[in-house]
Structure formats: structure tokens, C-alpha cells
Write a structure and sequence with these properties.
The chain is mainly β. It has two domains: 1-103, no CATH class; 162-317, 7 Propeller (Methylamine Dehydrogenase, Chain H), CATH 2.130.10.10. Helices cover 4% and strands 44% of the residues. The strands form six sheets. Strands 4-5-6-7 form a four-stranded antiparallel beta sheet, with no helix packed on it. The longest helix is centred in the C-terminal third of the chain and has 10 residues, at 241-250. It is globular.
């Protein structure tokens, strides 16, 4: 699940977390392991399951979200020995439900970072973090109002390519797009905001959870496509080009309260697995002639990993 060097966490039911630097499983404890397999550090982090992790590389911070409804920030600059746990620098207690997901906002300044958190009540919050000089003092504050639209667990948060908008998917069967414009940031309350784009599940909008989403790079397709994996075992592709242009253009301060302004068209669907499709990622490699070969990789609760190519707008195994 990790993207770039962010170290985004995976969810599961076992009680270990492995960072190499990416995350593998979840629990109330951290196990920091180097690539050789040697244990570097063990930290008891929360009083309930750890459901999400995020590494902020340039600030040397690890962010953890838990079923105990808290977010903790940990220093990654401390000495790593099996007997030395990570140092907790800050705890956020504003969420009232388990914290299920994170995403790191880019770009960021030298001593600053911004990230989003999503919880099991559907609440999405943006946080600003300041850590000066790599010290043990961290300042964290909420930035703007909550982003509304969902009413149950946020399964994935994903920024668009130029960091002007945030995608979210949920167990409530919806994918939402939230523009991150100045007008949104300056809105005083959540009730002033509405997502600019909504993609409901086309067949079972009340019962089928959206478990994973992925924006395809132009290596696959010249127009932006959004892939979604769900609990009905399918992977769907949505053309979001026209809808996003319309939604972003009309999403002004005067129209924020009017609700979603667009919906995306499903252009392809494939039966991906025999159980929930819980993760989607991209694999791109260089091939002969200076070309690139690109694949979509999916993971499922059916215990398999599958690889897919794109033939136009169609998903091909």
C-alpha cells in the first residue's frame, strides 16, 4: 500500500506492524525492522488496534491512528535498539471514532507538513504539523473545517495529481472528490461545504463498500481514469476528465452549499477477485526501446494478488 516513501499503513487483524520502511500489519505495538530482518525497536503505541500509519519523511515523524480514537506522532530520529521505543511527541484526541486512514499532502515546507485523517464515522480532517530543527517539540493544529459527505468508515484517502483535490472512499458505497481551494479552506464550518463530485456504487449503492481507489497515470491512458475496488469483488474504471473539469470550474464559494456538481461515468468493469478488493496500486517498469510497461496490481481478502493491464479504457487480466 505504501506510495513513494510515505509509508502508508495497511489494515488487518493481527497484532504486528512492520516498517521496512513500509507498513505491513496493525496492532497496539510498533515493530521497526530493517531490511536485513533485524529488529530495531518495539513500541507499545496505543491501547487498541493501530489501524493506519503514515511516515512524514522530511520531518522524521511517524503518525499512527488507532481504534482508541487517537492520533499519535512519534519521532523517528531517536536511537533504534530493541530496548528503546520510539518517543511520542504529540497526541491528538479530537476524533470520536477509530482513525482508519491517512494521506500526506504535498508540497510541504522544510519544517511544515500537512496530512488528512479519516475515521470510522466518515469524518475527514486536515492537520498542519510544525517540527523545527528536528527537535522533540511538535506543534499540530487542525486546518479548516471537516470535509463532509461520508457517514461511515473512510477506507482510503487519495490526493489528485496536482494536489488540488482529495478523493475519499468509504464503507458507505461512495467515492467523493473534495476540491482543496482557498474558498474551501476559508469556509468556517463543515455545513458550508459539499463535495464537488460523487461516485456512488452503480449496482448496490446502499450495501457495497468501496474498499480501494487508484488514479491511473497517463502511462495507462491519456485521459484521467479512476479505478475502484469494492466488496462486491469487482474493479471498476471511471472516466473523471469531463466531470472533474465541470466540478472544479463551478465549485465557487457561492456554490459550495449546493452539493455535488458532477458524477463520473463507469467505462469498464471486471470481476477482480473472489472477495473484497482491498488495495490497488501501479507498477511501472522500463522496457526495451525506452518504453514503459505499466500494470495495475490488486490485493484481496481472497488471499491473492493479481496483475492487470489496460486495453484502452478496459481492464484486462
Amino acid at each position: 500500500m505504501g506510495q513513494d516513501d510515505q509509508g502508508v499503513g495497511r489494515r488487518g487483524e493481527r497484532s504486528t506492524v512492520t516498517i521496512t520502511p513500509l507498513v505491513d500489519r496493525v496492532s497496539p505495538s510498533f515493530f521497526i525492522i530493517q531490511q536485513s530482518g533485524d529488529l530495531l525497536s518495539t513500541t507499545t503505541g496505543h491501547i487498541d488496534f493501530i489501524k493506519s500509519l503514515l511516515v512524514i519523511p522530511h520531518l522524521q515523524l511517524l503518525v499512527s491512528g488507532s481504534s482508541d480514537k487517537t492520533i499519535s506522532l512519534w519521532s523517528l530520529t531517536s536511537a533504534h535498539t530493541p530496548s528503546t521505543p520510539l518517543t511520542r511527541l504529540h497526541v491528538l484526541k479530537s476524533h470520536t471514532r477509530p482513525v482508519d486512514s491517512f494521506v500526506l499532502f504535498k508540497p510541504f515546507r522544510a519544517d511544515h507538513a500537512s496530512f488528512f485523517s479519516g475515521d470510522s464515522m466518515g469524518v475527514i480532517r486536515r492537520w498542519e504539523v510544525v517540527r523545527s530543527g528536528g527537535g522533540d517539540t511538535v506543534e499540530v493544529k487542525q486546518q479548516g473545517p471537516d470535509l463532509p459527505g461520508h457517514h461511515t468508515s473512510i477506507t482510503r484517502l487519495l490526493l489528485d495529481g496536482d494536489n488540488t483535490g482529495l478523493y475519499s472512499c468509504s464503507m458507505d458505497s461512495q467515492i467523493l472528490y473534495h476540491p482543496l481551494s482557498e474558498s474551501v479552506a476559508s469556509s468556517s464550518t463543515t455545513t458550508d461545504l459539499k463535495p464537488a463530485l460523487t461516485i456512488p456504487h452503480p449496482l448496490y449503492p446502499e450495501t457495497t463498500a468501496i474498499r480501494s481507489i487508484l488514479l491511473l497515470p497517463t502511462t495507462f491512458h491519456p485521459q484521467p481514469l479512476l479505478l475502484a475496488g469494492s466488496s462486491d469483488e469487482d474493479i471498476r474504471a471511471y472516466d473523471i476528465s469531463t466531470t472533474l473539469e465541470t466540478a472544479s470550474r463551478s465549485y465557487t464559494a457561492q456554490q459550495i452549499k449546493s452539493g455535488p456538481t458532477g458524477r463520473s461515468k463507469e467505462v469498464s468493469r471486471v470481476q477482480g477477485h473472489w472477495a473484497d478488493v482491498i488495495d490497488l496500486d501501479v507498477w511501472v517498469k522500463d522496457v526495451e526501446g525506452g518504453k514503459k510497461e505499466a500494470w495495475v496490481v490488486s490485493a484481496s481478502l481472497d488471499e491473492t494478488l493479481r496483475r492487470w493491464s489496460m486495453a484502452g479504457e478496459s481492464i484486462v487480466r
